[in-house]
Write a structure and sequence with these properties.
alpha/beta; Aspartate Aminotransferase, domain 1; Aspartate Aminotransferase, domain 2; 7-stranded mixed beta sheet; 17 helices; binds ligand P61
Length: 462
């Protein structure tokens, strides 16, 4: 295995002080937060690994571009700049900005659902995508390869679609009932795992065979392209932009939360290959939901920053360092015996808490328990991606069991140093050493929807 990690291809020009709290303070802070790190104040967090969404550092080119924002309500110059960049990257005909990924989802997805009993199929839907599929009256079905759930063993593309399962689902549900096939690249929920070009080509063939629309949920499409370059034969000498373009050629619609690979703090978009009718529908509905089609909930300066950020995110030296940071943290944990989703993906290290704390059952949220312990140890804030986030079966009211119980250590872009990651690794390793003392959690307050954001929990003493 290559153990070399590249130094950042940037230097630091502005700093944001962060402060370390004491363990006793953190015990009190976590208790007040209802044992749910979402309720902590960010000031009480030393290293914040809750998400890579909108938390990255902008370049000086982006900060300079902010000054060029044209805040016109209609026909903003900044929109046309943004549109040009997105068209150049995707090769698509139409571009509509949205305030973030879920804004794009709420406008675009319902336009594909034209009757009851329809389905979207994805390698793995992200939770907001699933929520918007369901709000549109459809159902979300996942068909990722089984290797994805085997966290220990290497597979270069754990985000791949299970092609046999995909064909099977389409036949079982009826092709006329499939609203679309969504390529989630990278596959966030199971580890930021990439999808290979070969797999996407096969998915496209299946979609064409049945005449089904293909969509990209491409919050991290540039990171996916970098993995293709590193791991897939025939792509070694292609540029990231060329690889990304090959993916765009396989789809009809691109939905993006540009808070990730747009290297900006806010933003989203809908891009459409050539379907004028679909574009007109989205353009109509963006108005009441997000705003006029040339701003879609963004300011002119947001669109300026994005126009620069989208291109910077395709730069190879940036991507190499970005993925090296994730690999660095993953290697440190793996070397110490901590079970992680291996290999590491694009934006985070996912710790396998079914293996970390096997004595805690899924309905007492093992990954949440580990996350809390990591916060107590060093003021590091991870996020649970497991049964706590999954919620309850709407019909039976029972807690659903997630196939994976993960603690995500999500690395913001261009924000932390390798030394910060050492602190994170040391904290997780320390908690791992004392893992037998971890206890499960029960509800003090459980909200009826998206409970993980605002629930209050209590530790269940043995
Ligand atoms: C994240 F705790 N992701 O990973 P928006 N598609 C994909 C995403 O990863 C994604 C969106 C669409 C987040 C933010 C987040 O329960 C949570 O711009 C592949 O966030 O609307 C977002 O994009 C939606 C964190 C979202 C959460 C929901 O951290």
């Amino acid at each position: 295995m290559d153990k070399k990690y590249v130094a950042p291809p940037y230097r630091i020009k502005m700093v944001e002080p962060i402060k370390m709290t004491t363990k006793n303070e953190r015990i009190e802070l976590l208790k007040n937060a209802g044992y749910n790190p979402f309720s902590l104040r960010s000031e009480d967090v030393y290293i914040d690994l809750l998400t890579d969404s909108g938390t990255g550092a902008m370049s000086h080119f982006q900060w300079a571009a902010l000054m060029m924002g044209d805040e016109a309500y209609a026909g903003s110059r900044s929109f046309y700049k943004f549109e040009k960049v997105v068209k150049d990257i995707t090769g698509y005909d139409y571009v509509i900005p949205a305030h973030q990924g879920r804004g794009a989802e709420q406008v675009a997805l319902p336009q594909l659902v034209n009757k009851e009993g329809m389905f979207f199929i994805s390698n793995m839907h992200f939770d907001t995508t699933r929520a918007h599929v369901e709000l549109a009256g459809a159902r979300a079905l996942d068909c990722v390869i089984k290797e994805c759930f085997d966290t220990e063993n290497y597979h270069p593309f754990k985000g791949n679609f299970d092609l046999i399962e995909l064909d099977h689902i389409i036949n079982a549900k009826g092709k006329e009932n499939i609203a679309g096939i969504i390529f989630t690249i990278t596959n966030n929920s199971a580890g930021g795992q990439p999808v290979s070009m070969e797999n996407l080509r096969e998915v496209k063939k299946i979609a064409d065979k049945y005449g089904i629309t293909t969509l990209i949920d491409g919050a991290r499409y540039a990171e996916n392209a970098y993995f293709v370059k590193q791991r897939e034969k025939g792509y070694e000498n292609k540029t990231i932009k060329e690889i990304a373009r090959e993916v765009f050629d396989l789809a009809d619609i691109f939905l993006m939360s540009s808070k990730k690979d747009g290297l900006s703090n806010i933003g989203g978009l809908i891009a459409i290959k050539n379907d004028t009718d679909f574009y007109n529908k989205c353009r109509t509905y963006i108005v009441p939901m997000e705003g006029f089609p040339t701003y879609g909930g963004l300011t002119g300066r947001d669109m300026e920053a994005l126009s620069v950020g989208l291109l910077e995110a395709l730069e190879e030296d940036y991507l190499e360092h970005r993925l090296d940071q994730v690999r660095y943290l993953g290697d440190k944990l793996r070397d110490a015996g901590v079970p992680i989703q291996y290999p590491t993906g694009g934006h985070a290290v996912f710790v396998d808490c079914k293996k970390f704390a096997p004595h805690i059952p899924y309905y007492e949220f093992p990954a949440q328990s580990v996350s809390n312990a990591v916060y107590l140890e060093a003021g590091v804030r991870p996020v649970e991606i497991g049964s706590f986030l999954l919620g309850r079966d709407p019909d039976t009211g029972k807690n659903l069991e997630s196939p994976l119980e993960l603690m995500r250590l999500t690395i913001p872009r261009r924000t932390y140093t390798y030394k910060h990651l050492d602190v994170v690794a040391e904290a997780v390793i320390e908690v791992y050493k004392n893992r037998k003392s971890l206890v499960g959690l029960g509800f003090d307050y459980e909200p009826p929807v998206l409970r993980h954001f605002t629930a209050r929990l209590i530790p269940l003493t043995k």
